[in-house]
Amino acid sequence: MKMEVYAGFAVGYKPLKRVAFEHLLDNMTIKTIEEQTPVVFSKAIEQIGAAISNPVPAIGLISTTQMDAYNAKDFNYPVLQTGELKKGVYLTLEEFQKNEPAYREFTVQNGTLGDMITIVDADGKEYPVRNVWGYCDGKNAYLKMADNYYTLYPAQNAFNLMGAKEVTSRKRTKIEAYLLFGLNVPSSKDNQKTVFRLVLKPLQLEVATGEVW
After folding, report:
1. For residue 55, what is the DSSP state?
2. What is the per-residue pLDDT across 27-65, written as a single tens digit (0 to 9) for each?
3. Which residues pair with 161 in a beta bridge?
4. 126 domain residue, yes or no
5. Which residue of 56, 112, 202, 212 is surrounded by the most CB atoms within 10 Å?
6. Which residue range(s) make up the domain with 46?
7. What is the rounded CA–CA span in Å between residue 204 and residue 159?
8. Largest CA distance in the chain
9. What is the DSSP letter of 86?
10. In terms of C-beta distances under 8 Å and separation of at least 24 residues, what long-range contacts does 18-21 make, across chains too?
11. What are phi and psi of 201, to 5 degrees?
12. Domain count, the chain
């Protein structure tokens, strides 16, 4: 969640600080969201209070018209204004913002810890590409993170998603398996296995900057 904070004066507003923070929910249900909404705003007020510890001088004021114009610029991207995303592969954020994919013909191969896109160039040749920002299948758009692609859901001037920014790893012991079959347990070094996994959590893509938070 991000909030832009302004101090109000009789003749205008003073931009103060942009407050950003995370508040993770265990279950994304309507009931959970309703219960946690007061907590979210309480955390926001705490951060705002910490950011505004001194009196604010009435200089550099802006009008509500200027404020609205500044916020409106984040909506001025074709991908937010169009009713239909173009099918294709986007190599950069700018291509996505303009809704102009670099390649229109492609296939996607899904893997456990990574997905691969194969494109078809102007000469009809197929080859895999890794430096991809995302793609659209003609219906939904997908963002690449941690070598996987996650569905983007429109949310005003942003897109929501359930995704993982990175692949996490941990050591897992195999003692249980040896004891189950009555085998001698090997040394601790041989008794561990590195397990890789993707931990999904609710995120939001800011179209203006490409930031995911």
Report:
1. P
2. 555 566 667 778 777 877 777 777 665 666 667 788 888
3. 203
4. no
5. 212
6. 1-75
7. 6
8. 81
9. P
10. 19/44, 19/47, 19/48, 19/51, 20/213, 21/47
11. -150, 160
12. 1
Q: What is the dihedral sign for C-alpha 26, 30, 35, 40?
A: positive
Closest CA to 128 of 115, 145, 139, 144: 115
DSSP 73: G
Listed in sequence order, the DSSP H helices in the chain are 30-51, 64-72, 78-81, 93-98, 175-180
Q: Which two tokens stand for residue 69?
A: 């114009």
Write the pLDDT tens digit of every residue in 64-111.
888 778 777 888 899 998 878 999 999 999 999 999 999 999 999 887
Among residues 213, 212, 74, which one has the least CA distance to residue 144? Answer: 212
Q: Read off the DSSP letter of residue 40.
A: H
Q: Has residue 24 been placed in a domain?
A: yes
- What sign does the dihedral 74-77-81-84 (CA atoms) show? negative
**Is 151 part of any domain?**
no
- The per-residue b/e assignment along 133-151, b for 16 or more CB within 10 angstroms, e otherwise, is bbbbeeeebbbbbbebbbe
User: Which pair of structure tokens corresponds to residue 65?
Assistant: 């018209």
Other C-beta atoms lying within 10 Å of the C-beta of residue 159: 23
195 occurs within a structural domain: no
Q: Please list, in sequence order, all residues whose beta carbon lies within 8 angstroms of the beta carbon of residue 29, skipping any fewer than 6 positions away.
A: none
Q: Is the pTM of this model over 0.70?
A: no
